[in-house]
Write a structure and sequence with these properties.
Layout lengths: L5 H14 L2 H6 L9 H13 L2 H7 L5 H7 L13 H11 L5 H8 L4 H17 L13 H14 L1 H6 L1 H57 L1
C-alpha cells in the first residue's frame, strides 16, 4: 500500500470503524510498515464494542485451524470472557508490535469501561498461560500481555484506585503476578543449583579422564 504517515494510518482506521468494516481493519496492520499505538488502542476498543454478528461476518474466512490456534484453551474446555472469534480478533491486535511507552500514552484515550473489559481479558490470558508457554504467533506473548497490563494500569491508575468494580480485578491480578514472581524466583534458584551440579559433574568427569590417562601412561611405562 506504500508509505503512510501516522496521520494517514489513523485516518484509515477511523474510516474502517466509521464504515463498520472490521474485516478490513483487522487486516490493515499486515499491509502497512507500521501500525501506531493509537491505532492499536482504537482498534481494540472498537472490537470490544463490536456485536457478535459483525465479528462473525468479518472473520467468516478464518479456518477452524486458525481459530483453534488462537484460542487453545477451548481444547481444555476452559471458558473465556468472550466468544472464540472475538478473542481471535482481539489477539490479532494485542499481538501487534508496540513501544510500551507509546502504548501507555495512547491507552489514556481508552474509555474506562473498555479498560476494565480488556484488562479482564488480559488477566484471563495471564491465568491460562502455562508457566513456560510455547511460541504461538496467534497469541500475544506473555511478556507482551504484561506490557499491556502495565500500560493500562499506569494510564488509568487514578480511576482504577477509585472504582469499586475494579477492586476485585486488581486484587486478582496482584495475586497472579505474585505467584508468577515467586515461581520465577524459585525457577532461577533451581536453575542456579542445576548449573552448579552440572559444573561439578563435568569437573569430576575431567578429573576421572585425567586419572584414566595417568593410569594408561603408568601401565605403558
Amino acid at each position: 500500500m506504500g508509505t503512510f504517515t501516522d496521520s494517514s494510518i489513523k485516518q484509515l482506521v477511523s474510516e474502517c470503524i466509521d464504515d463498520g468494516n472490521l474485516h478490513k481493519l483487522l487486516r490493515l496492520p499486515n499491509t502497512l510498515d507500521d501500525f501506531p499505538e493509537a491505532c492499536i488502542i482504537q482498534s481494540v476498543e472498537y472490537i470490544i464494542k463490536c456485536e457478535e454478528d459483525r465479528i462473525e461476518k468479518a472473520l467468516s474466512d478464518v479456518s477452524e485451524t486458525e481459530l483453534a490456534q488462537s484460542t487453545p484453551w477451548r481444547k481444555e474446555d476452559i471458558e473465556s470472557p468472550h466468544s472464540a472469534k472475538k478473542c481471535f480478533a482481539l489477539n490479532m491486535m494485542l499481538s501487534q508490535k508496540f513501544s510500551p511507552q507509546f502504548l501507555q500514552e495512547a491507552a489514556r484515550g481508552m474509555s474506562f469501561d473498555c479498560v476494565l473489559i480488556i484488562t479482564k481479558y488480559l488477566q484471563f490470558l495471564l491465568s491460562w498461560s502455562p508457566p513456560v508457554p510455547e511460541e504461538n504467533p496467534c497469541l500475544p506473548p506473555l511478556e507482551q500481555v504484561i506490557d499491556w497490563l502495565n500500560a493500562l494500569v499506569d494510564s488509568h491508575f487514578q480511576q482504577l484506585k477509585l472504582a469499586e468494580d475494579a477492586r476485585e480485578l486488581i486484587g486478582s491480578l496482584q495475586e497472579k503476578i505474585t505467584v508468577m514472581t515467586q515461581w520465577q524466583s524459585e525457577s532461577k534458584a533451581l536453575l542456579g543449583t542445576l548449573a552448579e551440579v552440572r559444573r561439578q559433574f563435568e569437573e569430576q568427569q575431567r578429573s576421572n579422564q585425567k586419572m584414566g590417562d595417568y593410569c594408561i601412561e603408568v601401565i605403558s611405562f
